[in-house]
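Researcher: Next sequence.
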Amino acid sequence: MSQQSSHSTATGHDHPKYLAHHFESMEQQNSSGKLGMWLFLGQEVLFFSGLFLMYVLARMFYPDTFLAAHELLDWKLGALNTIFLLTSSLTMALAVRGAQVNSQPQMYWNIVATIVLGGAFMVVKYIEYSHKFHDGLLPGHFFDAAKAMHNGVPANIPGAPAVFFAIYFIMTGTHGLHVLIGMGLMLWLLVRIKRGDFNSENHVYLENVGLYWHIVDLIWIFLFPLLYLVR
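Model: Next structure:
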């Protein structure tokens, strides 16, 4: 009988179902998960730092271009997207709070709201991109000043407007890709929330996706003034 009890303990029968076999406790598992996420977010910051450095150098070489070209961006749409992402950070935080207080509805519906807000952000970005493509305001040799002027857009921008729009599409496009990835991760969270995987003791995955989403939002807070509010 004692041998059976020993075997049950050794195989982890008494462990919570969400405790991986290679961890001794939930505290150890959660700490490892958070450490891994912070390391990942560190490399994300380094990645976007390279893009911001590209922006700084281009603006040093073409200051007049940036002052003139940013007028062709709609700051109102940029501000609307800022509101969407700031609100989504709040709903994401409320979802994590829902896990901490063992409220499945609070988790589920706040994640749904975050996905909807992320989707609204992408719709606005699609509208912006559509206008740029229509007016020929594209990066590199795709920039079409004649087409822009034909559509009533002042394209007599000094310096190298193609450089500005290359930076605009690279930075906002890369950020948009991160938004889509975050939305995909949240769809995965919804499945797990419906399955009852998260509670006050086990919500590290929810918290890590939240950290990722907050970083994505923070990056936009820098992109908005740098691209739309150039002074």
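Model: The domain at 37-228 is CATH 1.20.120.80 (Four Helix Bundle (Hemerythrin (Met), subunit A)). Helices lie at 2-10, 26-61, 63-69, 75-100, 104-135, 145-150, 161-194, 204-228.
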